[in-house]
Amino acid sequence: MYPAIEPYEVGRLEVTKVHSLYYEVSGNKDGSPVVFLHGGPGGGVDAKDRGFFNPKKYKIVLFDQRGAGKSTPSACLEENTTWDLVRDIETLRNKLGIEKWHVFGGSWGSTLALTYAQTHPGRVKSLVLRGIFTLRKSELRFFYQDGASHLFPEAWEEYIAPIPEEERHDMMQAYHSRLNSSDDKTRIIAAKAWSKWEMSTSRLRVSPEAVAEADKDDYAKSASSCLLAGAYTKLAPSFSAFARIENHYFVNEGFMRDGQLLEKQEIDKIRDIPTIVVQGRYDVVCPATTAYALKKVWPKITLHIVPDAGHSSREPGIEKLLVEAADEMAKLEID
Hints:
The protein is of the alpha/beta class. About 35% of the residues lie in helices and about 15% in strands.
């Protein structure tokens, strides 16, 4: 990773009457523009995310998607779909006066990157993707219903604990009702359990520190209403937004056709965009089968399968290859 830097521009982008997005720009003002798309959905960006990019070569754009991170209102589901986010990326690009940029995203960020590129292929210089996720029902079922549970039975036990046995045949829907409950306690328990499940499974070697984060309490605005200004609930905002928005997208199947991102007519739109994919061999959140499916329908991509890694971008092998991929894309001629 490149050394820590600070942004030279920080701002807010009003994309609707409801949503205001946090964004920042760092690196070289005259460098090749790159936009970083965070995971989740609902995850938000981190200062460390700037470190994937050579600050001498890149103009680095980070932003928090609707309801995530420093964007407001936190955890809001109103006017929050995949297609809203695609429009937001274009709105930000236009605001910053960028003609064409590199797009970098992992996990849900890879989903959004593919969706954006297939919608606006002429605006994408290259793609660097990690932990490919295409929102197919089979992928969601593997992680949230029957698959990853076979590898992490003790963590799974904690994940299903808040859900009565008679509702466990559809865990995403069961969590949906609780994450949108009017009862603070119900929402808190559900958000923590949902987030802890992902933290417990995201690395080849489980990080106790990351798992412990999901148990921390803090004061944040209630997510029971987008426009609620006064009420407070004891729940870290990142996990409230992460759980609620992620579940919202998944119960709605990403607001797209099942398998849409892998369809030939969609891949045909982006076949000539230089693309590097970094995939952990033992990723159980976004298993390697999806990255392999992408490679089969799009043979021109470069696919790196990291033999000693899971899902997290912070694992050494994945981190190293992502930095190298960004370095490689910086060599492309700027249009």
